[in-house]
Design a protein that fits this description.
The chain is α+β, with helices and mostly antiparallel strands. It has 2 domains: 4-115, Phosphorylase Kinase, domain 1 (2-Layer Sandwich), CATH 3.30.200; 123-305, Aminoglycoside 3'-phosphotransferase, Chain: A, domain 2 (Alpha-Beta Complex). Helices cover 44% and strands 16% of the residues. The protein has helices at 4-15, 36-49, 84-96, 123-128, 132-146, 160-163, 167-174, 176-190, 246-260, 264-284, 290-305; strands at residues 28-29, 52-54, 59-61, 64-71, 74-81, 104-108, 111-115, 158-159, 195-198, 207-209, 215-217, 223-226. Strands 1, 2, 3, 4, 5, 6 and 7 form a 7-stranded antiparallel β-sheet that branches. A 3-stranded mixed β-sheet has the order 8-12-9. The longest helix has 21 residues, at 264-284. It is globular. It starts with a helix and ends in a 9-residue tail after the last helix.
């Protein structure tokens, strides 16, 4: 289900501007006739306060409302949160201060004005057109910047274990791979390693091309936990049919292990845990959990078979 990352990409296609897409994906809708004025009014305060010029049609998701604007002649995105998760994400974007993530031009309790990506390169397109490994390396480099040890106190963050609450009921109801994922997740969360700030929704459409500033992250969820979690969705992105290929998982595991410094076995456990969680979210949203569960199955088989030498070199 599309989220803010996907939405920014939709806007890029529509307007020749850059885009935004997610994983705990919030559905996006285009404004219907008669609704535009009503929806636009929620932006009016910020348009006036920050001297913005609307630069496109608003887009609504389950968690926020987004309007392309111009600020001091610069392309920007005005994002008004409707849930706490998005408010927490805006605080984290401020905290990153443009390092590894889009710049924040202005901030209010429930709204944030963000630098808008203008580049035309898409990591999802790269991954789907023969440059999967290169796309993953770019993502890993961006995540490394986001994970750098802080020089200042963390903003408000949600504990990672709270993010996994959907997995237990799925395990109790459906068993099988849901139970496997839940067991693995509980063990990881009970004994975390290398904890710190997490983006929480790293995938190909949430890291965008900002031209001279490189590839930068958008749409964080603002979590605190083990950093391996942030890499897991590279193996589970439902937009990539290649995630169902065991050979792709082995190759990407080598790349992520090399770029991140994470142990391959530990990374496999995070893939199993995250794939089960993703499948549980699909169930909650009325979607199809099978693709995510298949990734969990591949990772579990790889873990059970033992891990050989990992190089990940180009």
């Amino acid at each position: 289900m599309p989220g803010v990352g996907v939405i920014f990409s939709m806007l890029q296609s529509i307007m020749a501007l850059a885009a935004i897409t997610p994983t705990r994906r919030s559905a996006a809708t285009s404004p219907l006739k008669g609704e535009v004025n009503e929806r636009r009014t929620m932006f009016d305060h910020f348009i006036e306060a920050w001297a913005l010029v609307p630069d496109g049609a608003p887009v609504v998701t389950n968690s926020s409302q987004i309007l392309p604007v111009r600020w001091r002649s610069l392309p920007a995105m005005l994002k008004v949160a409707t849930v706490d998760e998005e408010k927490r994400g805006a605080l984290l974007m401020r905290w990153w201060d443009g390092k590894g993530a889009a710049k924040v031009y202005a901030y209010a309790d429930n709204a944030v004005l963000l630098e808008r990506a203008q580049g035309k390169r898409s990591l999802l397109s790269m991954a789907m057109n023969g440059e999967d490994d290169a796309a993953s390396r770019i993502i890993c480099k961006t995540v490394q910047i986001l994970h750098r040890p802080p020089a200042k106190p963390y903003p408000e963050l949600a504990p990672l274990d709270s993010w996994f609450r959907a997995l237990e009921p799925a395990s109790l109801t459906h068993g099988g791979l849901f139970s496997t994922s839940h067991t693995v997740a509980k063990a990881l969360l009970a004994d975390p390693l290398q904890t710190g700030v997490l983006h929480g929704d790293i995938h190909h459409s949430n890291i965008l091309d900002f031209e001279d500033r490189g590839f930068l992250a958008i749409d964080p969820k603002g979590l605190l936990g083990e950093r391996g979690y942030d890499y897991a969705n590279l193996f589970c992105n439902p937009d990539l049919t290649a995630t169902r290929d065991p050979g792709r998982l082995r190759r990407q595991l080598a790349i992520v292990a090399l770029e991140s410094g994470l142990e391959p076995e530990r990374m496999l456990r995070w893939i199993i845990a995250y794939a089960g969680l993703s499948a549980a979210w699909f169930l909650e949203d009325g979607g199809e959990p099978a693709p995510a569960l298949h990734v969990a199955e591949i990772a579990a088989a790889e873990l059970a078979s033992g891990i050989g030498p990992v190089s990940g070199k180009a």
